[in-house]
Specification:
This protein is mainly α and 319 residues long. The chain is built from 15 helices and no strands.
Length: 319
């Protein structure tokens, strides 16, 4: 009986010590939309990053002899369309390959989205933790957050683009300067929701027993924040990050569609939409492809955020 008991205790202990992230993944898998969103985000990322190595056509290459080539499926209802099996998404009015531009534009749009999201999360987390932990700074930081929330963000971004576009382009070049401006503009106008969420969680956590115990033994504020508070607010930060990525992609596409984004020879999904809106009636597929890329990417990221919100909540996981 003693040997059986000794064999049973490690087994039960091993079951109790199951990795928490496995429980999160098990719950995440039950959300079908989140699983679809994860696979589509991986697919579109690989399509944009690895696609140009396979589809090695220069997105800026002008082929006037093969301009206005329609996608293969258009031959079904337009027998006079110029169709090429070598250009599955067709070409534009300058002969540039649309698939190559979608890949290149996806690289830029995703890079802007990820970079702006990281900047917004860093700013929002820093302000939220500071406001939640230090009571004397709470009022000042939250009133500043309310002030930024009250500003009309799209007009503010348009003013920033008009004021700082030329100086940054002169300092860093036409592409790098606009990239820095767009990322900075989106990042500093998208951190407020994260700050409010993190502040609320920190204010609740700092009254918990383990935080009071750590404070009673003289733990400094910096160590208290990095060791005890930040690890416990990771779940809302991760959910806010996914929603911030979707917001950043939409904002960059809106700026490019308004003609205030990257140069015309530097494609993004929003810029491709802007360049083809004048010929949308004759060639609707030229706005369908970038529109689908933006819509499905944002939809998949939102689904991932919903799945993470459910998976990271211990009450929903039944723990």
């Amino acid at each position: 009986m003693t040997e059986q008991t000794a064999q049973t205790v490690p087994t039960a202990s091993a079951e109790k010590q199951r990795n928490q992230w496995l429980d999160v993944w098990d719950q995440f898998k039950t959300h079908k939309g989140a699983v679809f969103g994860l696979f589509f985000l991986i697919f579109i990322t690989l399509f944009c990053l690895a696609g140009p190595w396979i589809w090695n056509i220069d997105p800026g290459d002008l082929d006037i002899r093969n301009k206005d080539v329609r996608p293969i499926y258009t031959v079904i209802w337009d027998s006079n369309a110029k169709v090429s099996w070598a250009r599955p998404m067709g070409t534009d009015n300058l002969g540039r390959d649309i698939m190559a531009n979608i890949m290149q534009g996806g690289r830029i749009s995703l890079a802007v989205g990820w970079t702006a999201m990281i900047l917004a999360i860093v700013i929002g987390t820093a302000i939220g933790v500071t406001a939640g932990y230090f009571r004397r700074l709470d009022g000042l930081l939250m009133r500043f957050t309310d002030l930024v929330l009250a500003l009309p963000l799209l007009p503010l971004l348009l003013v920033m683009m008009l004021l700082f576009r030329d100086p940054l382009r002169a300092a860093f070049g036409p592409e790098q300067g606009i990239f820095i401006l767009i990322v900075t503009g989106i990042g500093i106008t998208s951190w407020m929701q994260t700050a409010r969420i993190v502040r609320g969680d920190v204010m609740a956590l700092k009254e918990r027993e383990f935080v009071l115990a750590a404070r009673s033994i003289g733990t400094p504020a910096r160590r208290m924040i990095t060791r005890h508070l930040l690890p416990n607010v990771l779940s809302p930060i991760m959910v806010s990050a996914t929603l911030g990525l979707a917001t950043a992609i939409i904002t960059e596409s809106a700026l490019s569609f308004l003609g205030l984004g990257f140069p015309s020879d530097f494609p993004t999904w929003g810029k491709i939409l802007f360049d083809n809106v004048d010929r949308m009636t004759a060639f609707p597929e030229r706005v369908i492809w970038p529109g689908l890329a933006i819509s499905l990417t944002v939809l998949s990221v939102n689904y991932i955020g919903d799945g993470l919100r459910d998976a990271l909540d211990p009450r929903i996981r039944g723990l």
